[in-house]
Fold each of these.
Amino acid sequence: MTADGYSPTPATRPRGPWSAPVAEGPLRATVTVPGSKSLTNRELVLAAIADGPSRLAAPLHSDDSARMVEALRALGVGIEFVPGEGRYGDDIVVTPTWPLRGGSTVDCGQAGTVMRFVTPLGGFAGGDVTLTAHSSALHRPMGAMIKALRDVGVDIDDGGTWALPFRVRGHGHVRGGEVTIDASASSQFVSGLLLAAPRFDVGLHLVHSGDRLPSVPHIDMTVESLAHRGVHVERPAPGEWVVPAGSVRGKDVAIEPDLSNAAPFLAAAMIVGGSVSVTGWPAHSTQPGHMLTDILSVMGARTSRRGGTLTVTGGPAIQGVDLDLSAAGELTPTIFALAAFAEAPTTLYGIGHIRGHETDRIAALIGNLRAVGGEAHELADGIRIVPRPLHGGRWKAHHDHRLATTGALIGLVVPDIEVDDIGTTAKTMPEFPDIWQRMLDGEHDHSSDDAEAQRAS
């Protein structure tokens, strides 16, 4: 709970072991998922460096967004929570301050967006800013970001570790200029630099030098968010961005539902049968989760969108596929669960970078599946899943929200699956166990259909 009494996640959220409920039959449910974590944290950062106040409607309230709020408050940014029309909590009003305040410590928790997006902001502070993280997240790659920021004039003292924790010695401004970065490990390096770039003295000319660039839709999301606030990012060539110095417009922004968090609910219809609908599905989105309609269709589902609601209906069988998920690596755990029940083997590739998330997701997914009787093999850049009969057992979350929801999917048709810590879902969706049970109970949540459809149009 923050100083103003705001509790970002429910105090009664479940922690520890959770017996995944088995579906009693085909599903018939409509659910509403909370706002996008990726959009919420990008808009919080842009609002913090804008030329006036902003209001975020229907934002995500979760551990990751709470970490971002606390980080920005530590830098002197004014943040208030005001009643809104969103189902899952208040709107957020952000009042920027300039320069940002130094002399603070930012605990990033497990939030990659906080460690990658707030570090550049530390250069704008009038004093030192120390960044640290949860012990389970200190391994997450930061070296490329540290090097790039030093190249544009940010003073960072990392003690030679190229990792958290470290101190940013803020001087109230950042020079900017041209910089080359290898963002192969995370697209968040690019997004973090682009978000801060309008406030650099001379803007930014950023070039990616690596062999690959994962999660490109997330970079597109950053560029689009900047455009909505009056900052035009030029792209002279693939892997190159030019951001002019200038102001960032304060404005009101409606946050889309988190489409990747919707993935387990939609996939449930394919595993159990029946149909699941998610309200507020946008006609256009830069979220990687927007690719679900194509991916699930290829794997045997029927998808339709009507009035802002996406419906997925399970087909007669789940198809084994070869999928390049380089643009949507965060969907891997859900697709992995589907593949475990497919008619033929599945190969997922382009996902080597997910080894550096909350945990090594490739190793963790394979280990969990093997523990319940399944077969999967690690590839240089992916996973091969061979369907086998499964049995109950312990499913380890490894402090990773997406691993926990994968266990819930497996447990829909495999009795006695126990997720060792369902509380990890609070990172991006504290309400997950409740929404999951409502889906299984066949609830049809139309309480916010009109508002969601209007937001998605």
Amino acid sequence: MKLGFVDVGGGTRGIYGAGVFDYFMENKIKGDYFIGVSAGAANGASFLAGQHGRNFTFYNEYAFRKTYMSIANFIKTGSYIDLDYIYYTLSKSDGENPLDYKKLKENPMEFEIVATNALTGKAEYFNKDDLYQDNYDPIKASCCVPVLCKPYKINNIPYLDGGLSDPIPFKRAFEKSCDKLIVVLTKPKDFFRNPKDDYKFSRILKMKYPNAGKTFSKRAKIYNKSLEQLLMLEKQKKAIIIAPKDIGNLKTLTQDHDQLEKLYEMGREDAKRIISSNDPFR
């Protein structure tokens, strides 16, 4: 049986997934395939590299630095989040908290990263072959929050957050021959998006990237339909969903040490509770 992991990310709320995968590392729970969206891709990289606790530090320490994300960044560069600071300066081999690229590459688990092509508005999938020592551009692209950040270019093609085009990429996991999935959400599994929430930002994005803006305007519909299908897969025992019951008032880029630490611990506890009652290998 081929077991796959799906992590949907969600900005600093991705600390919930960091807690889930730290629990998996502690208990030697492994799979065959991992697909991550946005912060979920960053969680996946540390998971494959076997770096327990690494992502907790990024969410609950580095994310509070102005160099990481701030209005000053936006005024200076046009991007609120400095993706190069996160996934190069901090993560390079001689950085403050390097990603163990060698272990990531040697891990037999398949790894894919979802990003949205800003020109077409469609999802594209990167894999390990697109990652190089100290060059983690696909993760940067996947984490590129629209409007708040300029699209991140790879081979001169602008990319945005993978959550716009494929927010819960379970279909891709099944296309890659997975038989069963563990899906990590960062909002309650009964939460459905309101299309009105995306109206303003999608209009702004459409001015320069019309196809990406159109995709953004459909984000709620895409997410909600994917969630409905995922809930059916859960009933059919083809997917195990790990999701927080309550995220309080945490938004995508919330900076609150207490709430973030609480969400991390919730991820660990939820993983323990759900996996103990749902054998992922059956």
Amino acid sequence: MKATAKRILLSGGLLLLSTGGSRAQTVNVVVADADTRQPVAHASLYTKENGRFRSCISNEDGLAHVNFSCQRISVSHLNYEKRTLRMPLPDTILLQPRFLQKAEVVVTNKEPEWIRRCLKQVVKQKQRHYFSHNGVLQFGYFTQSLGTDNIYRCNMTGLLRTLSSVNEEWSIVAYTVAITASDSTRLTDTANMRRMLYEDFMADLDKGFISDHRFSHNPDYKGRNDNEVELRFRLKHGTDDRGWMILDTVRCVVLSAERTTGTKTNRQERINAMMYAMARVFGYHIDTWTRHYHVDYAERDDGTLYPANVRYKMYYAGHDGSNDKQQKEFHEQTGGGFPNMEATLTLKPSDEEPDDYDQWLDLPPSWYIAFHSDKERQKEIDLSNLPATFNLFEEENE
């Protein structure tokens, strides 16, 4: 008896199809936080044995269905320390948090009046504080993507620069690129880097964001000085958009922020409604789309701020009924992506300038559903074929 699964990932541009034969007995486990015992959604459970990579992903309740045979399995999540376990698995797999987890805060209708006044001032001044630089930044980028039968990792270092407006595109020079994958067909993937840069928290913070959310002040937060406060926010009419920010109330700048969004919010904010309607005509539909974004800002010598440390996680799955040969060819040329992705980006000011300015490549905004012009397609292909060292994925050690 054969089982067939079908997924499409338009964000990275890869149609993922997996067809399996007879399945091993399914083992059900729950992945949970070791401190809070709360379920961990979209944790990756994976292994490579007998020359084949297999993986599964925990759902919103932390439940994972391990439907393949193996001797040991690795469990990873961007916000937790990785674990490798031998079979048989326990009923619950506890992961140790890698970062300090903030307790959930219930936002009530009683909102201090000063919050919105301060946030509006942040928006008014954000162009000067966050997007007014012409400098070069040194970057370190790591991305990991896992599907049911594929794994991809990319470590990259180099330089980034942009013009003085947030609407201008970034440019990139890659110094080193190291790819780890289960086969030798993978290309360089900058998709998550572009999401972290163009979908930056401050780019999203505008008058509409303030109007759509409720805010509360955490009185227990202890910052570096009395000017720093912690604000929690939640979507007024919905449950799939929430987070927090650390705010300097004197300078009116955001120093750190974290935001988690779900399928409804992401579809409304990240995809053109008309384009999505056209995609649905051809059979495409988004099943699940969650995004987790964390950023810490740092200050340059001139007082402007930049996203010094960014963590990003996205699970994006859907189904597609089309058979577009041109789209498939483009997927092959750009390398594509996977349903479950996580990445980190570190930036710091640099005095470096490449001698050869032809080294700079445009780093266009990220996309999820798009029709590309020939020029745009060529940009994607160029970014996907950066020179890299390549290693086959080896079985994880304990």
